[in-house]
Design a protein that fits this description.
Layout: E1 2-3, E2 6-7, H1 28-47, E3 49-53, H2 57-69, E4 73-77, H3 80-89, E5 96-99, H4 108-117, E6 126-130, H5 134-143, E7 146-149, H6 154-165
Parallel strand pairs: 3-4, 3-5, 5-6, 6-7
Antiparallel strand pairs: 1-2
Amino acid sequence: MLLGDRVGLTAPGSRPSLPTDEGSAASAPLAREESALTEDVQGARQRGTVLVVDDDADLRESIEVALLSYGHAVATAADGNEALAWLHEQSRQPCLVLLDLMMPGMNGFELRSQMSADPSLASIPVVVITGAGVLADRRAHELRAEVLRKPIELGTLIDTVRRFCGGLGLRPRPV
């Protein structure tokens, strides 16, 4: 639940509670919720991170929130240059890259080409998320990537991420 600029998390089977001061008895549900969240985050780290690359900030955030609610770790980038820099900084590669094609700067086609040419990045699975339609169809074989059309159904997104990153049996975490 959203509480102004604070987000309250509810652990499965518990009742939502308002954020309170640390020392009060009412803060006990929050401590349990934080513990459950920590366990979920640790599980997500074991499964790997999903890198979402899209120039649409609202879409990036929506995908991030959805994946986080299903227990997946998420990193985001606004364009190919930012994504490539992030990929090179990581000691552990993501389990999946969700990649938009049409972006300013380095677009998705260029990023996919750069990843394919780099032995340390070439094996990272890529799923294209696009509204490009026919263009994506014509060039899909070049991309060597599955294509999801925008708008993306939540179930399709989660099923796709699970195929690459695991997480079967997870249920969304109430937010």
